[in-house]
Amino acid sequence: MRRIYFTIDTEYEAGFARCQGLDRREENFDRAVRGRTSDGDVGIFYQMDVFERFGHRGVFFVDPMPALHWGTAAIADIVEPILKRGHDVQLHLHTEWLGIGDSNPITGTRKGNNLSDFSFEDQCALIDWARNELMKAGAPCPVAFRAGNYAANNDTLRALAQLGFGYDSSHTPGFADSLCRIELDQRHQQPTRILGVTEVPVGCIGDALAELRHAQLTALSLRELVAATKHAVAADLDSFTIVSHSFELLCRNRERINTLVKRRFDRYCEILANMRDASTATYAENPPQVAVRTSVPSALPASYLRTGERMLEQAVGNMVYGRNWKRNTSLTALAIACLAFEAQAA
């Protein structure tokens, strides 16, 4: 049985807090975590509804750094319902929250947008503080970590090993512009042991134009997600990691539901439930295993047809669901046609 790790990076929005002020915590929660719109919620509570409808369990990488400003209760509002519903909570960390205010109790006046901007000693302090805060919010001691913006480096892995973490999932071989600085390359597409921890790469597939593309819900079509999962089964891979976010079923302005992505999420969960040789797994109960041949590429081979279909679909999605959207009947009709097309993908 192949392990599918459907990971949700779950976080408040640091940019919104910086621009709109720290007195709008509940609105931030509704935008970034609950995914609230006038047409319904599509954040983590909806995502858990869909997971549970099809018998899946998600891995929620939760960022506790906003507790610097709002206290532990703001993180418990996220952690408690995830655990109550039987899903997995692991550690995420966005250092952007250090830049809101003059100083902080972890690194003083030292700031940086990414974890890799900090020294080994500061990274140890940051990860340790975040872990303790996550546990104060009710989570079991986390065993896995993902850096905000994927911005880990070798010092991050050394810090994780020193702090007793077993796994990191910041390496993104399919993301050409990734901020990850861990010394692995595109060939490392399966879990590998490095600097005292097991690095679990975000999944990827072959791309006809860009060599590789990362397995993020908004980055691949339904056809590609399903094909990648079937390939993991056929190639006898131990695991495949998909990444998404608590706000990913929303449009970019966080005000409307992105129907294309929501439908993709729903259908993928339904299709995965009907696969005999693949199922979702958690780090808490069924963690990834190190691959035997870690430097041998394992991604689904590229297909011009799949790549072209996805590029067309995303062009339509950007027009209909982008920040500068204006109601347009023909574009809406085209989006509906894309939905119908994806419905036949599997």
For the record, what CATH class applies?
Alpha Beta
Number of structural units classed as domains: 1
User: What is the string of helix and strand elements?
Assistant: EHHEEHEHHEHEHEEEEEHEHEHH
Q: Approximately how much beta-strand content do the residues carry? A: 15-25%
Query: What characterizes the major β-sheet?
Result: 9 strands, mixed
In DSSP terms (H or I, runs of 4 or more residues), the helix count works out at 11
Structural class: alpha/beta
- Please compute the radius of gyration using only Cα atoms: 19 Å
- The appropriate CATH architecture is Alpha-Beta Barrel
| Shape label | globular
The CATH homologous superfamily is named: Glycoside hydrolase/deacetylase
Percent of residues in helices comes to 25-40%
Q: Report the end-to-end length measured between terminal Cα atoms.
A: 20 Å
Unreliable stretches: none
| Total beta strand runs | 13
- Mean model confidence by pLDDT: 92
**CATH topology type:** TIM Barrel
